[in-house]
């Protein structure tokens, strides 16, 4: 949903999700069934392409004897999952909506065409597995190889789809699922929206990621109009993550640009405090 886009899609989403958060899963599936997908861009985010290509210094190091394992929660049609495969990852696309994964499998079938250069193998062919399940519950891990930890977790529009009341659970969960030497990559969006405008997508300025990922599982103070109350935060948790990189990408999806053409998205990369 671009800053220049008419507000009808935003208004429809706001109305659609004006129910308790524990009922949201079915609501997302309903949108996929109705083919109402204003967030779907049809290709991987250019910021992720550039990160994987140019910033290996902030990505997880290779693990001897196996491929690096990546997770994309709320993967939609799986464009970013297929990109991670091209970079050699054992990539898992997780969705609560089976209809979304039907779309992902259709996209996967089309990989290899002349207009699919972005998905060409770059340094070792990886693999893809589509998994239907709830990110906040362990059931989906039965379909994951190994010990159920991920070397890379990518979050772009997943956190922004969750109401602020679920951010404590999100931060706790990503920390639980991150391998000891792993990295969480967050494409921070939308950074420009006032908190009071609601969502999805919910406003996500960089300070929200810092507050929650350094205090995983903690309920943090929010004001209905002003958003996160930084002055009321306690000390970071000893189990919190450290931010190892934070920068604005050279390019991103069109929704991440201001009206004057400036990038408003940020990329942050996170690791366990004792990670190398």
Automatic annotation (TrEMBL):
Domain of life: Eukaryota
Keyword Transferase applies: yes
UniProt KW keywords: Methyltransferase, Phosphoprotein, S-adenosyl-L-methionine, Transferase
GO molecular function, one term: S-adenosylmethionine-dependent methyltransferase activity
Keyword Nuclease: no
InterPro entries, A to Z: SAM-dependent_MTases_sf, TPMT
Any one biological process term the GO annotation gives: methylation
Protein name (record): S-adenosyl-L-methionine-dependent methyltransferase
Organism of derivation: Glarea lozoyensis (strain ATCC 20868 / MF5171)
Lineage of the organism: Eukaryota, Fungi, Dikarya, Ascomycota, Pezizomycotina
């Amino acid at each position: 949903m671009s800053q220049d886009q008419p507000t009808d899609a935003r208004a429809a989403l706001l109305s659609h999700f004006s129910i308790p958060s524990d009922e949201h899963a079915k609501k997302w599936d309903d949108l996929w069934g109705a083919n109402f997908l204003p967030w779907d861009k049809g290709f991987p985010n250019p910021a992720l392409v550039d990160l994987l290509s140019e910033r290996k210094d902030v990505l997880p190091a290779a693990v001897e004897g196996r491929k690096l394992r990546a997770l994309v929660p709320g993967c939609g049609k799986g464009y970013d999952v297929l990109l991670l495969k091209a970079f050699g990852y054992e990539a898992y696309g997780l969705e609560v909506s089976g209809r979304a994964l039907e779309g992902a499998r259709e996209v996967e079938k089309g990989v290899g065409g002349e207009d699919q250069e972005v998905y060409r193998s770059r340094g070792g062919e990886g693999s893809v597995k589509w998994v239907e399940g709830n990110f906040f519950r362990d059931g989906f891990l039965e379909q994951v190889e190994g010990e159920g930890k991920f070397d890379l977790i990518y979050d772009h529009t997943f956190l922004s789809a969750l109401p602020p009341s679920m951010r404590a659970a999100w931060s706790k969960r990503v920390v639980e699922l991150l391998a000891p030497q792993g990295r969480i990559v967050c494409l921070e969006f939308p950074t420009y929206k006032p908190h009071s405008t609601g969502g999805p997508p919910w406003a996500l300025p960089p300070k929200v990621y810092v507050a929650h990922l350094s205090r995983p599982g903690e309920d943090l103070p929010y004001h209905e109009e002003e958003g996160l109350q930084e002055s009321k935060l306690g000390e970071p948790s000893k189990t919190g993550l450290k931010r190892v990189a934070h920068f604005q990408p050279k390019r991103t999806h069109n929704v991440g640009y201001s009206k004057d053409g400036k990038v408003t998205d940020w990329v942050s990369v996170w690791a366990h405090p004792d990670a190398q």
